[in-house]
Amino acid sequence: MTILSPVSLLHRPQSGAVLSLIAVLAFFMLFGGVDIGRFLGAASWVNFAANLGIVALPVGLLMIAGELDISIGAMIPAGSMSIAVVSGHYDLPILVGIGFALGLGAVVGLINGILTVRTSVPSLIITLATLVAMQGIVLSASVLLTGNASVPLDAPAWAKAIFGRLIGGNYQIIILWWIGLAAVLYVVVHQMPFGNRLFAMGGDRASARNAGIATDRMTIGLFVLSATSASFVGMCGAILFNSAQVSGGMNYIFNAVVSIVVGGVLLTGGFGSVIGIVLGTLTFAVVSQGIYFTDIDRNWSSLIIGVMLLVAVWMNNSFRTMALTHSPKKKP
Amino acid sequence: MTHPVLELRNVSKSFGPIDVLHDISLKVNAGEVLCLLGDNGAGKSTLIMTLAGVHKPTTGEIFMDGEGIRFDRPKDAADRGIATVHQFGGTFPLMSIGRSFFVGVEPVRKFGPLRIFDRKTANQTAVKAVQEFGITRIDDGDRLIGGLSGGERQALAIARAVHFGARVLILDEPTAALGVKQASHVLRIVLEAKKRGIAVIFITHQVTHAMAVGDHFAVLIRGALAANFMRGEKSREEITDLMAGGEALADLGAEIESRMGPHDGPPPQPAA
Ligand SMILES: Nc1ncnc2c1ncn2[C@@H]1O[C@H](COP(=O)(O)OP(=O)(O)O)[C@@H](O)[C@H]1O
Ligand SMILES: [Mg+2]
């Protein structure tokens, strides 16, 4: 492993997020009168972080690759509605509903990915188009098929146990899925050759392709992962709450991008880390949900998020510059 | 007889109605430095991109070891041992030396069922490869490419190409952005690559740099081969004049003087 000196730690992509998280917690304790023990044990912000985190991770990898996926905003309700319509309204086996929800995510991800690599249209615009299109499809299909914009779902016990259970009364099982996804992606991105290719692709796509990297296939794969993950989050929500709504999900776009950027991912690609994205998500969750634990009026949380975003981006830029100019073993 | 490593026969290239290269025939031998000279816009980059598989010739043929070849993608040229180093060398400024050295061909070690990127081997190999070219200041494979000097980046990119068995090394203006000292480092590395039997195509518009390393010179003017000669056949002045498109630089000097002479207004302001 790398030498864990404080200086070399600062050169990691996630160092800004670590400081942001500490600063936000300290701020709430000092000025919000938060009892830190009670706060850390609270489920609300952890549940919030897990749902957001499962989407933020693949979107963050796309950003490292130099792309963006905002269709997640429509894929969360799409995942939740499709399982509710298939297994709730039509009463088909839950496995069919799960397959339908995840399959829909994969198909939309494929469309996003193929359009991105085949055209020169920026992925922001392509996924904006699929975002709007999927919103329309989900709303019309559910009204057409069920006559309603909200559909009940009664999942069998085994499905609830895996996807929609509360552990210890308050903690959503999706927290474990988030930890699992983060662990797998950590190994794939930071310990396996895939990660090297991802960073190369985000740094300079043409050179990466010339080095023999299947950039198109990797890009499409990442889009499939992000749309499917969003659909998964929606699906788990429907199983947990026994119903699905066509609305909701749009906030995830904004929340995920802020989490990723605070987590030290470079907007233009080529730099970032899985740990950073996780820490950025935690920081975002602490600010937006932790505010309820403080004496501070909750309307201030947006201001805090805005300030935090600017400070984090500034810190990340400074750390990146330091990493570029610093030579750990410089001789005198 | 032995064939040249790379040979172009009557290669022309047009982009739609724009003719960029006209009827170029050139040979490069192993252990030889071919200097490709020419003014901006002469077609040097287009010529090497054709060799690197980025562009396909509109007409004409490319031979490698006497055998006719066709590159559909840059990867095909790379697989044949044609390595191109672009002006700014390292193209992944935010990656470490070890990681960028092995992009696409990462060394791995087995960890249970997983194939884990072998960072230590990658770093050691990369540092050793570049140190063999005399750049001993690079000793830590974890440093980011973006933190290296321009000359160090060129050295690293050349060392990488040689390490992966390049037979033809194409350097597009490797010394253009460098100071005198760094440029001389790069020129020394070019000679070192040549000594290892690699055919080097060295693009520059600095005649001094070309004279320092070239065995064989080709001058491109507006896409046509204006001259093709061996070391010692032409003087520095002749080469410089050729590059200026045949108009002797002396004329240019006279022209500048005649413009400056009667001038009595304020000196021209530099562009903001
Ligand atoms: N893809 C292209 N399409 C059209 N014209 C091009 C293209 N690439 C290069 N050219 C033209 O070809 C000429 C030679 O360019 P280039 O090979 O880059 O010159 P050099 O590298 O010698 O400065 C220029 O006039 C340029 O505008
Ligand atoms: Mg050029």
Structural account:
The complex is a heterodimer of chains A (332) and B (272). Chain A has 332 residues and is mainly alpha-helical. Chain A has one domain: ABC transporter involved in vitamin B12 uptake, BtuC (Orthogonal Bundle), CATH 1.10.3470. Chain A contains 15 helices and four strands. Chain A has a two-stranded antiparallel sheet. In chain A, strands 2-3 form a two-stranded antiparallel sheet. Chain B has 272 residues and is α/β, with parallel strands linked by helices. Chain B has a domain at 6-91 and 161-250: P-loop containing nucleotide triphosphate hydrolases (Rossmann fold). Chain B contains nine helices and twelve strands. Chain B starts with 5 loop residues before the first strand and ends in a 12-residue tail after the last helix. Classes of the chains: A mainly alpha (332), B alpha/beta (272). Chain A binds chain B through residues 2, 187, 191-193, 195-197, 199-200, 203-204, 207-213, 266, 270-271, 320, 323-329, and chain B through 74-75, 78, 84, 91-95, 99-100, 102-106, 108, 114-117, 139-140, 142-144, 146-147. The site of adenosine-5'-diphosphate (ADP) has 11 residues of chain B, from β2 and α1.
Provide keyphrases for this structure.
heterodimer; A: 332 residues; mainly alpha; ABC transporter involved in vitamin B12 uptake, BtuC; two-stranded antiparallel sheet; 15 helices; 4 strands; 73% helix; globular; B: 272 residues; alpha/beta; Rossmann fold; six-stranded mixed β-sheet; four-stranded antiparallel β-sheet; 12 strands; 33% helix; binds adenosine-5'-diphosphate; binds magnesium ion
